[in-house]
Amino acid sequence: MKKLLLCLLFLLIPAVSEAAESLPPTLKPEAQHRDHAYTWETRHEAVKERHRNIKPEYVFIGDSITHHWAGEPADGFGQYGKDSWFRLFGPHAVTNMGFGFDYVDNAYYRIQQGELDGISPRVIILMIGTNNLGHRKDTPGACAANTRALISLIRRKCPSSKILLLGILPRKEKDLIDAIRETNRQLSRLADKRHVFFSNPGLVLQEGNSGTLRKACTMDGIHLSSTGYSILADELADLLHRMDPQYKGGKVPRPAKIDGMDPDQVHLVAIGDSITDNYRKDNLPCQDFLPIWKKYYAPYNAFNAGFNGNTTDDVLARIGGKGILDHVSPKVVQIMIGTNDTGRGNTEEETFNGICRVVNKVHSKLPHASILLVGILPSDIYNWHVAAAAYPDKKFKRDMAVNDRLARLYAKNPFVTFLDIRDVFLDGNGKVREELFCDPAVVVIKGKKAGPLHPNTEGQRLMAEAIQPTLARLMKKHSK
């Protein structure tokens, strides 16, 4: 009889210890049926089944922002960031434990009901709470208290796992900005920097210090776009490298060749939009750009990383999702970006901040490379199909103002050289020299010739000649 009572006592210890830790009154562990796009119970069972068969190195617990990203168990819901998910976790076993519309309470219930049983991931990433604030209207204190209880449960289930707690991402609702900031402040206090670590990636996804997501980073002001996921993945890769010495993600597979070269042979990377991408063209007479590239860039073993239509956020996404800088160690990175930002109606401040983000990201990826930042070229985009075409003078002034600010910012920066070549494309009266642009000759929109935006053969040659002395000086510096 004593042995029976002793066995029963041991069986009761886990339940008693969990009950002894009183839960916050706002935490209601339960299943969730608010999201009718998928069956909550089916996904819950799929996660448990996966963990009976696979022991993941990482799990990512969250709501629809995580659920939409990619990964397993896949259920046809979302998968909007496959490239960046693969780059972030590619060589590792990982489980996506995001459930659309979940509160912290629902995640607590899922884990209480066995989703982490029998596994011991090296890192558990936790990004949840936006629905508590945005839908249920919890206070910051309630959301943080619920999250503290969830972390405590995760620690009991997986005592050897590290927990990476992420701040709640910005949302479109301006009345939630202060609540999100206060919640994140309280969440940061839950980190002990031994078992629990905190990071707030929303800071790199928001517009300036606005507290709302940048347009390119979101589909609806709440959920991330593929660009947003790519930027988030890049931030998480840096964090996982610091937290876990066994982490080998954060890079795309090494390509055999980049622009026909072994990646180790690349000494110059030219990042930009169509103006840089156009160097691949050899269309006579007004777009014969390839010979210019071969003369001024190819001798430096240059990789053309320009892409038609790119904005600053697109460049960040290609760095984070496509991994365009993953396997190169260039001496110099040339950056010429921003004209599509203002073309789409971004403000001077937004464009300036976007360019600075690109520069900072390149420098963090390639700290030993010199950065040659070329200013936005003058343009006069009448008759184009973008927002700024309605006010081409405003775009021109905005671009030149951005250049002026960049010149002041980087005037004494040891890693960044700013080069403003506007004078090449302006006449003595400060007007755009249309004869140096190909658009009026080759682009027709709604039956009308488009205004000057892309240099023609002569303009591209003059541009390369203007850049060459500074580029040569920076390349020579690395040859010493």
Give the arrangement of secondary structure elements.
Elements: H1 2-20, H2 40-53, E1 58-62, H3 64-67, H4 82-89, E2 94-98, H5 104-112, E3 123-127, H6 130-134, H7 140-157, E4 162-166, H8 177-188, E5 196-199, H9 202-205, H10 226-243, E6 268-272, H11 274-277, E7 282-283, E8 287-288, H12 290-296, E9 302-306, H13 312-322, E10 332-336, H14 339-343, H15 348-365, E11 370-374, H16 392-409, E12 416-419, H17 439-442, E13 444-445, E14 448-449, H18 457-477
Parallel strand pairs: 1-2, 1-3, 3-4, 4-5, 6-9, 6-10, 10-11, 11-12
Antiparallel strand pairs: 7-8, 13-14
Helix pairs in contact: 4-10, 5-7, 7-8, 10-13, 13-15, 15-16
Signal peptide: 1-19
Domain SGNH hydrolase-type esterase: 60-230, 270-462
Keywords: Hydrolase, Protease, Signal
Contiguous runs where pLDDT drops below 50 for at least 5 residues: 1-20
CATH domain class name of the largest domain: Alpha Beta
Radius of gyration: 26 Å
The chain-level mean pLDDT equals 93
Across the major sheet, the strand order is 2-1-3-4-5
Strand content is: 5-15%
CATH topology of the largest domain: Rossmann fold
Structural class: alpha/beta
Helix content bin: 40-55%
E-strand count: 14
State the domain count: 2
Our measurement of the CA-to-CA distance between the termini, rounded to an integer number of angstroms, reads 85 Å
Count of separate DSSP helical elements: 18
